[in-house]
Amino acid sequence: MKKLLGSLILKLMGWKVVLHGDVDNLNRCILVVAPHTHNSEYLLGNFAYWKLGKPLKIIIKDAHTKAWYGGIVKGLGGIGIDRSQKNDLVNFVAKQFEKEDFSLVITPEGTRSWVPKWRKGFYHMAMTAKVPMVLAAGDFKRKIIYLGYQIPFEEIQNMSYEEILKKISDYYKKYDIHPKVPENWNPEIS
């Protein structure tokens, strides 16, 4: 049902999904999503994953998973985290990957606003969980969701953080991604 619904919604909205790699790259990975400038990116990504029949999760404040609408949030892949407590999020994520396979959405910018540099959590999560990184982006000018370009774990463990950022930066520059709110995107990834 989700496959049909995801396909229908994207079609009605005029969006298409372009895979850069095997669809099975989406089974088990840290999904690096950039640019992150608007909440609509998450919904579009969810519809793309529904269309492709792949499991998608996102870390969210537990207030959203405990609220009256928490069932919907969990149904959309929300994993609640108590942000008032100091959490070892990297190891928490690694333990989640021990239980099941899924793509975990991480927006390294950490906010929808312009930032001078990325947070490193996505890198540490991939290293600790021993999973690949897969790149994703929504191009709002062309109405294309790009998915599937994989940086295998074997490469991640043999590259420096700076080399990984360069590889990611080159990917986003190659496809000339146009975010929803361009002034909130810093294409100089560091």
From TrEMBL:
Record bears the keyword Acyltransferase: yes
Pathway: Lipid metabolism
InterPro entries: Plipid/glycerol_acylTrfase (IPR002123)
GO biological process: phosphatidic acid biosynthetic process
GO molecular function annotations of the record: 1-acylglycerol-3-phosphate O-acyltransferase activity
Record domain Phospholipid/glycerol acyltransferase: where: 30-138
Pfam families cross-referenced by the UniProt entry: Acyltransferase
TM segment ranges: none
Lineage top rank: taxon: Bacteria
Keywords, in A-Z order: Acyltransferase, Transferase
SMART domains reported in the protein's UniProt record: PlsC
Stored PANTHER family: 1-ACYL-SN-GLYCEROL-3-PHOSPHATE ACYLTRANSFERASE (PTHR10434), PHOSPHOLIPID_GLYCEROL ACYLTRANSFERASE DOMAIN-CONTAINING PROTEIN (PTHR10434:SF9)
Protein name from the UniProt record: Glycerol acyltransferase
Biological source species: Bergeyella porcorum
